[in-house]
Design a protein that fits this description.
6-stranded mixed β-sheet, globular, mainly beta
C-alpha cells in the first residue's frame, strides 16, 4: 500500500458555483478558431492575476491563453480567448479564476460552450 493518502484515492472533479461568472461575446455556440471576448462578472482582488482555461467534457485541460488578463482599477477584467483550431465539435467548459497571494484562488462559475461542426450555424447545437 502506498505511503501517502493521496496515493490511495482517485481524484474527483468538482465544479464550484459562485456569484462570479463569465460572459462571452458573441455567444456560447462557437467554431474552432473563433475569438471570443471573455469578461469576468464579479470583482478580483486588486493585486490578483486572472487565469482562463478551456476543458473538454471529461474535465481535461484543452487550452489557455499565454499570460493572463489585467485587472483594472475597478477590479474587473476582460479580454480575447481563441478557441483552438484543433477543438473538435462538442461541449467544453471555460474556467477562470483570480489568483492572489493573500486571497488564494477565487473561482468563477464555469461556463459551458459548444464547439460547432464546420458549416453548422450558431443556435442549432
Amino acid at each position: 500500500m502506498p505511503g501517502s493518502p493521496r496515493d490511495r484515492y482517485k481524484p474527483i472533479f468538482v465544479e464550484i458555483s459562485t456569484y462570479r461568472h463569465l460572459d462571452v461575446e458573441p455567444g456560447t455556440d462557437v467554431h474552432a478558431g473563433e475569438t471570443l471576448t471573455v469578461t469576468g462578472v464579479g470583482p478580483c482582488p486588486p493585486s490578483g492575476e486572472v487565469t482562463l482555461e478551456l476543458h473538454d467534457a471529461s474535465g481535461k485541460y484543452v487550452a489557455g491563453p499565454p499570460g493572463s488578463y489585467t485587472i483594472d482599477e475597478n477590479r474587473e477584467w476582460s479580454g480575447p480567448f481563441v478557441v483552438p483550431d484543433t477543438a473538435k465539435p462538442g461541449t467544453y467548459s471555460l474556467r477562470a479564476g483570480c489568483a492572489s497571494r493573500s486571497w488564494g484562488v477565487i473561482p468563477y462559475t464555469p461556463l459551458s460552450i459548444t464547439v460547432l461542426a464546420d458549416g453548422q450555424a450558431a443556435g442549432t447545437a
